[in-house]
Amino acid sequence: MKHNSSSDISLEVAASTFAALGSEQRLAVLRCLVRAGADGLSIGELGKRTGVTGSTLTHHMKILAQAGLVTQQKQGRSIICAAVAYDAVRDLSAFLLKECCADELQTCKDHDHD
Predict the structure, then answer these.
(1) How far apart are CA 88 and CA 97, in angstroms?
(2) pLDDT at 106
(3) In what order do the strands lie in the sheet containing 41-42?
């Protein structure tokens, strides 16, 4: 399920997005794309780097795209590039940390909230 660019995502959207990451292969694909940077990778190169190829990679990319975590764009006639939707990944991270230490009686000092 896609979500807007606001860092204040709902519990339902966060759960859906985390569900999309509930596969080792999808998590590996996303991690590889994060490492590749904003330009992304061709599907062929993504397959080489992750060891996930063919229809399996297509299936995982479709789920990640539906969750709003990656984008796909045709370049030329047949090369499809994939890149991370960094805003969506940041929103998901912000969802987890938004209320960090909110129930502690003392200010937490063991980590940053930025």
Answers:
(1) 14
(2) 67
(3) 41-42, 79-84, 70-75
Mean pLDDT of the region 10-36: 94
Q: How many other CB atoms are found less than 10 A from the CB of residue 18? A: 13
Annotate 40-109 with DSSP letters as a single string. Answer: -EEHHHHHHHHS--HHHHHHHHHHHHHTTSEEEEEETTTEEEEEE-HHHHHHHHHHHHTTTTTT-SS---
- What's the pTM value of the predicted model, to 2 decimals? 0.80
pLDDT of residue 82: 86
**Per-residue confidence (pLDDT) for residue 1, from 0 to 100:** 44
CA 46 to chain CA mean position, Å: 15
Cα four-point dihedral sign 84, 35, 22, 12: negative
Place of tokens 């660019």: 5
Q: Please give the average per-residue pLDDT across 8-35, as a whole number.
A: 93
Cα dihedral 80, 82, 87, 92, rounded to 10, equals 130
Confidence tier at 12 by pLDDT (50, 70, 90): very high
Structure tokens at 67: 């969750």
